[in-house]
């Protein structure tokens, strides 16, 4: 997984799916100041990278869980990646909305999945883990056996690790923040003076100051 994590970190930096701006931080919806912005939808526009990530997701499913009955994706960022994985494995696919539709059948889960079927959930990005685990809980409330979750990228926040542990949901990621910032230094995207500040953000994100 080490080589995979480094490769994917390099890819995300190359295609600017991840942007690092420690001196001009982004503002998240939560109000946190962040030196990093990640948009894994950009992966879909790069066939070679898209294929590599799909292959690695399938490999982790085979190694960690074994083939489930259904692949599930978290809306919206993981829908396309989940479809690619399901297609490669010859499995059905469903996706979980962030909230139920306000019309029609008011679905939260789109697609066909039955009670006692097993699934693996695909996520594009894990930050605090709240939205990811909301999808897991929606499946469980419908009697689905969730084997676990696999993400393309994980910030590695303790709050997310704790939440997944409490939820008894195994979680794996292809790459993560620690690998990414070290790769960014090695590839010249950031300087050594930026590295410590970027490391500090991971542990002090709620009160982090870029100056």
Describe this entry's structure for a reader.
The protein is of the alpha/beta class. The chain has a single domain, classed as Rossmann fold, CATH 3.40.50.2020. Helix content is 41%, strand content 22%. The protein contains 7 helices and 10 strands. It has helices at 2-14, 47-65, 79-89, 130-141, 158-166, 177-186, 192-204; strands at 18-20, 26-27, 33-34, 36-38, 70-74, 93-96, 109-110, 118-126, 145-154, 171-176. The strands form 3 sheets. Strands 7-6-5-8-9-10 form a 6-stranded mixed beta sheet, with helices on both faces. Strands 1-4 form a two-stranded antiparallel ribbon. Strand 2 (26-27) and strand 3 (33-34) form a beta hairpin. Helix 6 (177-186) packs antiparallel against helix 7 (192-204). The chain starts with a helix and ends in a 7-residue tail after the last helix. The model has no long low-confidence stretch (mean pLDDT 92).
Give the overall shape.
Answer: globular
Specify Rg, calculated over alpha carbons: 17 Å
Strand order of the largest sheet: 7-6-5-8-9-10
Q: Biggest sheet: strands, sense, closure?
A: 6 strands, mixed
Helix content: 40-55%
Percentage of β-strand residues: 15-25%
Query: Helix count, per DSSP?
Result: 7
CATH architecture: 3-Layer(aba) Sandwich
The helix-strand sequence is: HEEEEHEHEEEHEHEHH
* CATH level 1 name: Alpha Beta
**Strand segment count:** 10
């Amino acid at each position: 997984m080490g080589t995979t994590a480094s490769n994917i970190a390099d890819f995300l930096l190359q295609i600017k799916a991840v942007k690092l701006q420690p001196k001009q931080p982004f503002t998240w919806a939560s109000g946190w100041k962040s030196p990093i912005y990640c948009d894994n939808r950009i992966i879909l526009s790069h066939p070679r990278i898209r294929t590599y990530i799909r292959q690695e997701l399938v490999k982790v499913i085979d190694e960690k869980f074994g083939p489930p009955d259904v692949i599930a994706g978290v809306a919206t960022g993981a829908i396309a990646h989940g479809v690619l994985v399901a297609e490669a494995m010859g499995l059905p696919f469903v996706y979980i909305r962030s909230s139920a539709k306000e019309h029609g059948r008011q679905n939260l889960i789109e697609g066909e999945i039955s009670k006692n079927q097993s699934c693996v959930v695909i996520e594009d990005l894990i930050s605090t883990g709240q939205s990811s685990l909301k999808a897991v809980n929606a499946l469980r409330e419908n009697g689905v056996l969730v084997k676990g979750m696999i993400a393309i990228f994980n910030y590695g926040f303790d709050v997310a690790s704790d939440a997944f542990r409490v939820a008894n949901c195994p979680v794996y990621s292809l790459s993560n923040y620690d690998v990414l910032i070290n790769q960014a230094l090695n590839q010249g995207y950031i300087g050594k003076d930026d590295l410590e500040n970027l490391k500090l953000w991971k542990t002090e994100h709620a009160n982090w100051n870029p100056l």
